[in-house]
Protein 1
Amino acid sequence: MRLFIGTPTPLKCFKTLKEELSPFINGKWSKEENLHLTHKFIGEDDPEKWHIPLSVPKEEITISGFGIFNKKILYLKASSTHINAIAKELNVPNFVPHITLCRMKSFQPKLLEKLQSLEIKEEANFEVYLYQSTLTQNGPIYKKIWKY
């Protein structure tokens, strides 16, 4: 089974962001219902191996600011007091907490100006799940199979 550990991050601003930024981007947008912060991508494995104790804090995750990985991934930055502690527990080096918005084939230079003009500030519950990820022609389908 293809697995990852993540936090669902529904965004009230997603439709508006997509409408405002799409004219500057050639790419594939994440499905709104699939928005999440990945704590650890596992890949093919037995889900029973991942029924492990994790210290999930009772706090909110703050979502604000944009970033771009390798001129290909547009994302929102995520932060909280204890977000890096989970990465450490899961042995994830160089963890960059983020929510992928779009996988870009290309973008216009004006995208960078547009991103600087937008202010985003949302919060999400800090809930952590083991997800099953099934790849389809219409994009991935995620199913929560365990709550930490």
Protein 2
Amino acid sequence: MNAEEVLKLFRETDALLDGHFLLRSGLHSRQFFQCAMLLQYPSVASRINEELAAKVKGIASDSVISPAMGGILVGHDLARYLDRRHIFAEKDQGMLKIRRFEVRPGETFLVAEDVVTTGSAVKETCALVRQAGGVVKAVATIVDRSGDLTPDFGVPFFSLLKMEVETFSADQLPDDLKDSPAIKPGSK
């Protein structure tokens, strides 16, 4: 599956939105990848995650971990294809924490996410794994929309779709976005 085919699936499932969006990072954008809309269809999710698994199959890891919420479906399905355990970090009082699961010392992880812009949730998840004595081996995402500002996770970074999507700080909004309210359809 090439990038055009992945993008076509996003459009067919109404998972690529156009408008004025406030991203989790605090940046504004004209486009938003609502992966939940894509992943609500198990057959589509399966195709996407099978492709992502093929990209990371050479990475030796014991487990897959995802930041909640967006990464959970990706991580779970990716772990299924890789025959690995899957756990997730979840928000607790505004911070990601590994609450329900144990990270064993030396356990190796692949971090799975749906969309990366600045990579803040992935960085938090990597830090949690490392603080618990685990080792992060790689990061995998469906969409990398970081553009020229690809985050440095300190490990290999894989994606199915890399897109240049304009983002703007609140004080640098173009006129067309200044005149419309920003919506935040993703994680709160």
